[in-house]
Amino acid sequence: MLDHSSENVRASTSSGTSPRTIEPDLVSELLLGMRLVGLDYRRIEVTPPFGLAFGEVDGRAQFHFVARGPVHLRTPAGILHTMNAGDAVLLPRGGSHALLSRPDTKCQDVRALSSAPLCSTVSAISACDGGGECEDERAIVFSGCMEFDLGGLHPLVALMPETMLVGTLIERYPEILPMLEAMEREAKGARAGFAGILARLADVVAAFIVRAWVECGCGDATGWIAALRDPRLGRVIVALHNRPGHDWTVAELAEIMGASRSVFAERFQEVTGMTPVRYLTELRMRLAAQWIAKERMPIEAVALKLGYGSQAAFSRAFKRITGHPPGSHARPR
């Protein structure tokens, strides 16, 4: 198949300004809640022919960096990308995919290969034949499974391209190049402490890819994300995200936008597909689910933080939006 899945990324990061871009202040505010942390990294050194299959891990992103290539990436949609030394890719929704020495190579599950721990979050996989004679033919890849959460903006993940290739960013963001060069040196050299350094660099590069996509207007994403491209509506979205527990009124939000209440309400509905009240309620419930499940915040404290007068009122709203009571998201202590 032809390589089309990264067109959204490439188009949104071309040089020059665009009316589709999002103001820097909005990007900063909206990405404050971003959490992108590597949970399980692998330094993989393998001799061709090879096919490494990566299964889907629910709710996790996947990151790959090629220190020595070429390597072919087959995406969850079956599209092929050729990655050379210095290339990196983020798959924000993960999904079943493969790294191949040739497009027609048979695959084996990467988890079936023997590995050795390098540090708490990094292991090494070496599947090389032929001793030192074929060392230059060996592919070296640094791969990671990542926790990727955007807090109240988590639905944005569903709007991202299937694959986000760093090569599409270098022309507009040349400052990422030294990070990629450092990753290449660390992965090839395997010096003391390289595993931890690679893991931190990978976290930064992956976050950089996400920021660049948002900063450039989120590609061709439509729906409520269009509000971020409208500077006046964008200020309203930021205000809601900054103070989700405030008892917002249409009049207050219209004032932030600099419009009458009727014009604001009509514009908000037109762009986001929902009323301001509905948007705020869904935002609150996404935050609530995160705070209850991941931060183990008591339900009563969540209700208070989000502006509900009682736990019962919050629980009714939560079940109405999510279909489940808030207690179903709580993890045992």
UniProtKB/TrEMBL annotation:
Q: Which UniProt keywords apply?
A: DNA-binding, Transcription, Transcription regulation
The answer on whether this UniProt entry bears the keyword RNA-binding reads no
Which segments carry the region annotation Disordered? 1-21
Q: Does this entry carry the keyword Aminoacyl-tRNA synthetase? A: no
For this protein, the record's InterPro entries field holds: AraC_lig, AraC_XylS_family_regulators, Homeodomain-like_sf, HTH_AraC, HTH_AraC-typ_CS
Q: What is this protein called?
A: AraC family transcriptional regulator
Sequence ranges of Polar residues compositional bias: 8-20
Boundaries of each HTH araC/xylS-type domain copy?
Answer: 234-332
The species is Mycoplana rhizolycopersici
Q: From which residue to which does any coiled coil extend? A: none
Question: Short name of one Pfam family for this protein?
Answer: HTH_18
